[in-house]
Write a structure and sequence with these properties.
With 365 residues, the protein is α+β, with helices and mostly antiparallel strands. It has eleven helices and 18 strands.
Length: 365
Amino acid sequence: MLQPDLNSIAEKIVSQCARVKRGDCVFILARSDVAEFAEAIGIACTRKGAHPLVQSRSDNYRRENLLQADLETLGITPQHFLALIRETNVFFQVGFLPANPGFLRDVPEERFIAHSKGHKPVQELLYDGTRKWIGIACPTPGQAEAFEIPWESYHDSLWGSLDVDYDELSRRCTCLESVLKGKREVRITSRKGCDVVLDISGVPILCDGGVISEPGEGFPLLNLPSGEVYLPPRNAEGTVVFDYAFLQGTTITDLKGDFTEGILEFTGAERGFDSIRKALETATGDQMKIAELGIGVNTDLTQYGNVIATEKMNGSVHLAIGENRPIGGTNVAGGHWDMFIFRPTVVVDGVVLIEDGKFQIEELM
């Protein structure tokens, strides 16, 4: 199993990805099992002349807080946390996905609603575009078990994809961005029967090449691992067959549906369709409307599972439905659901970009 050099990876993330500067006030919130990595990021910030503050917490602590606080308390905004965010220039969330994806299954929905209400001002401030936010996915055996994938390959793929040549990754993203700019139509097909056409005329084309934008120069939000180009389509028409999705702690395979005027209606799945039915019970707003097309370019990612990493896998495509205002769309919804096609054929304005999961343009081969 790969032994990641946490100090080296932390230095890359702080210097190349987050571009931390002297005088920055940095808050690092970490899952407790990756506290050592969070501290390495903090020390790398210190070397830059920044002022890091590191806090770690376990998934169990988060769960017990939700279960043991009364609803009134959950609905109150924590003013000290709000003040901390207000004074923060760079916010790292290390291990921002839970160690065990199903750890909150027994928490009643009313508690999530109350907590969301209380933390809404915090979320609005955190993502208002005036400070940098960097979320870092860190693997655990519990995640691998939930995704039903081998732990060793998942561990090595995810850590390896964080320790990459970010200049090369950025070059690949910029190349794909230039291919998509000014285009009107994307058609996605697959051997399993997917055949969907997306209208991308006039939409913003966004790059996640591992280097965050400065506030005021773009949207300063970055997920790691990185390596995708994504956009909010205007419309979608046709049949979709998704190889993989992960929703409400459940793996879903061969998920089928039809887009009509941009609205998706699910029609079945090989497995996991009950999770879709359950999720639909609480879907609100534009939850079923096309939200995103993303194309992965990270050649170091070899194992699907974690959604944040899966969407960056080289030659893969994902479509999402629901909320998309943060990426330049207009959908208002309670969630954002990503679904994946691993070996797509992608044709852009009549030119083949990807065939059976392999790029067909020289610069991305």
